[in-house]
Amino acid sequence: RRSSSRMSSSFDFPFFGSSGSGAFGSNDFAFDEDLDDDNRQSIAARYEKTRDSVIFLVDSSEKMMKTGAEDKSSFDIVLELVKNVVQNKLIQGGSNEIGVCFYNTEKAKNSNGFAGIYNAIELDEPDAKMVKELERLSDQKIFRDEIGTGASECEFHRALWTCSAVFSRRKNAKISFQQIMLFTGNDRPNFTMGGAKYAELKTKATQKARDLDDLDINLVLNPINVDGTQFKISHFFADLLVVEDEDGIAKFDEQVALNFEDLKGKCYKRMFKKRALASCPMTIGDDIKIGLKLYSTIRAATKRSPVQLDSRVNQKLTCVTKWVCGETGAVLEDYQINHFYPYGREKVKFTKAEMTDIKDFGPPGIKLMGFKPRSYLKWEQNCKSPLFLRPDEGQVKGSTTAFWALLEEMINLRKIAIARVIYRKASVPRFAALLPVKENEKDPWDDKTGMYMIFLPFSDDTRSLDFPPQPVADDEKIPGLIESTRKLITALVGDVNPESYQNPSLQKHYRALEAMALEREEPEAVEDELVPSDGFQDIEAEIKAIEDIVNEIEEPEPRKRKKAAGRGGRSGGAKKAKVAVVINDADYRTLAENNGLKSLKVAQLKDFLRAKDLALSGKKADLIERIQKYFSDQDAS
């Protein structure tokens, strides 16, 4: 069986960002402006495949139209996923291309004139028209009226042929990563045409798949059956698709999707190609070199920086910097600009070549310095987004063998590697820890075998903080408060996973962008999943227990402050007259009869008792009981 790399999710992020503070502190950025192109060289490499071209090939047979447990058919789920992908690509921008083709249809529309194949959306960059067309076709009634489901199957190899013809007509095919995303629930296409015919068509489909591979077109299968029917890749697709080992078929059989979220997760892993952010060598000693590719890891989503546009033509503005003489106002050329560094009262001047030599710490790359026990790497040292390292055989022959041998030995000895990283010429070296990891054997799509490059903090970034002592709850003074609070926190937290909740602020931002891209008047409403349920039904008992304990606490009497002697020899000012507290017996009686004295504060209860010359000692419950007894005695007399 043919071998190929597997697909996984990828994210587009700038590589490393700015160089940070250099040899001259915060003024370092001024020198970067004048470096020539050679000095701006980085370890990042340019790749020919810079864009994605994807054709969604969707089975439109009657089997795909049958509804499942969630009252949705496999066809409905696939179109919802395709629309989701198009919307995301539209919002993200870029020059990616998407097309949609249906097979096993009643009507036909394709350049080859094949029956049962309908090219619904031509391969093109996503736009609002494409999203609206997918929304319209999601209605099965409209789909059946305009395209329809075929009474019989079309020849499967012709569906692949149609997609190949679409790709061949594109001018940018050489710079595009071309994929056919196949969605079907039938693991034996054309089986109903009979034994001899089926064998012939299977051979043609296998040959067509090989032709696609020769044209660098990747065929990706996404099986879906909402009714839970098992999908056996060995029946037909084993000779067409990519499996890495003999167990690959058995593993793939377990990947059939049952609902939208299941299909979305599996499809995104297979659809997005891992693209290296950079390529660089790792040196061990003076003689050994290993070629590496660096990949970005998953990061927290953030709002993109705003882009300045020209209001007249709605085009992106380009910032141009020029140096101007302060005395004459003339624009300065490169040879007229000198660099200096203040030393005392003198300005030490440097030429451009001297500046380049001062800031040169060596060629970009990774140099292995040594090894440390894995326990030395602390969680708090992960202060910068890590990168992921994989071997690059194309850069240095034998890199794969050397890299895997080093990784296996580091895992067996529970070691991490310490490396010096110069990620851009004229940038400051950083030390990083290389943490080896192996793939999860239970997940056939998890190929996370490699090393995480975790950038270590500088010594200035590590500091010890002295926190002031905090008050601690005392069970002797307030019995039951600690246990009740612990129950409340447990009820609030439970088994909640913060990663399962979407950021409402980001979702509103994305909905606004989506509305602008699709030319809608109002963005869709966003459900804030962080808002708790009404009434806190699940934790009312815990809240009530803490309220009862707090209500029982006796408030301390305010301390009487001694007044300081006034200025001018006087012993003090005139005393303020006490304000008499007016007590309304009727109000207190009403509260006592309706069990509403709990709503009053301890000070209010004591005001009433003080006015009636009753004792003021005890907890709040004792004060309430004393007031209720006072009214009971009055009623009895």
What's the SSE blueprint?
Layout: H1 28-32, E1 51-59, H2 62-65, H3 74-92, E2 97-103, E3 117-124, H4 128-137, H5 140-146, H6 156-168, E4 176-184, H7 195-214, E5 217-223, H8 248-253, H9 260-271, E6 278-284, E7 288-296, E8 339-343, E9 346-350, H10 352-358, E10 365-373, E11 387-391, H11 399-413, E12 415-422, E13 430-437, E14 450-455, H12 481-493, H13 504-517, H14 540-552, H15 585-593, H16 602-611, H17 620-636
Parallel strand pairs: 1-2, 1-4, 4-5, 6-10
Antiparallel strand pairs: 2-3, 6-7, 7-11, 8-9, 10-12, 11-14, 12-13, 13-14
Helix pairs in contact: 3-4, 6-7, 12-14, 16-17
- First-to-last CA distance: 103 Å
Characterize the largest beta sheet: strand count, sense, and whether it forms a barrel: 7 strands, mixed, barrel
Taking all residues together, what is the mean pLDDT? 77
What is the overall shape?
extended
How many distinct beta strands? 14
- Structural class of the secondary elements? alpha/beta
By DSSP (H or I, 4+ residues per run), the number of helices equals: 17
Low-confidence stretches: 1-48, 244-251, 566-573
Strand content: 15-25%
Helix content: 25-40%
**Measured on Cα atoms, how large is the radius of gyration?**
36 Å
Strand order of the largest sheet: 6-7-11-14-13-12-10
Structure description:
The protein is of the alpha/beta class and 637 residues long. The chain contains 17 helices and 14 strands. The strands form 3 sheets. Strands 6-7-11-14-13-12-10 form a 7-stranded mixed β-barrel. Helix 3 packs antiparallel against helix 4, helix 6 packs parallel to helix 7 and helix 16 runs parallel beside helix 17. It is extended and about 110 Å long. The N and C termini lie far apart (103 Å). The N terminus is likely disordered.
